[in-house]
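Today's session is about reading a structure prediction critically. Students often jump straight to the picture, but the first step is always the sequence itself: look for stretches that repeat, for charged clusters, for runs of hydrophobic residues. Only then move on to the predicted structure, which in these notes is written as discrete structure tokens rather than atom positions. Here is the chain we will use throughout the hour.
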Amino acid sequence: MGAPKNYAARILIITESVFSMDGDRAPLPEIVKLKKDFGAQLFLDEAHAVGVIGRNGRGLAFEENLSREVDVQMGTLSKALGVSGGYICGSRNMTEWLINRARSFIFSTAPPPALAAAARTAVDFLSSKEGEKRRQRLRRNIDILAEELSIQPASAIVPWIIGDEKATLAAAQNLQDNGFLVPAIRYPTVAKGAARLRITLSAAHEATQLRSLAGAIKRLPKRD
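Below is the predicted structure for this chain, in token form.
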């Protein structure tokens, strides 16, 4: 059902493109349809997609050819780009408004020149042939772990849901004792009864490491 004809309120749809705890992807085509039906604006957080998804790691909107439908795109420099800080992309009017009115921006300090230069170098690397090779290596690592654990991850974030919080903490400690740092995520970060191990893959992981991790996970007590 479409929006009422006289619907005049300003609507802002806000979503991540890749969700941080389940690693699943937002249904962007359906969200864009809602945006158009209601005359809304779309604010998309690509923090966990930039550097990972889409050609040269340009994000989920780019991969699905929906970049022009995104009114405001937010991202971080602290994950795939390896530095710190973040960014906002949008119209000139919107960015000028944020510069002058956004409290968190006004009362913060600018990044040091070295950090800004490192971020720019990281963006240039992502856009290079070598950067694309690195992204493909990450894709291969995701596929290796998926095959080993018989799962179908949608991104480099792979949740291994256990359920019980104490059991999840014990599982994380078990893995750490075997040389794997896999954090236990519990309530309130995730819902009660949905505690999980949060595996985050990178292009730097070796196939032997991933297979060893999968073996250690398989030896954990059975999940709920």
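Discussion point for the tutorial: The longest strand covers residues 157-163.
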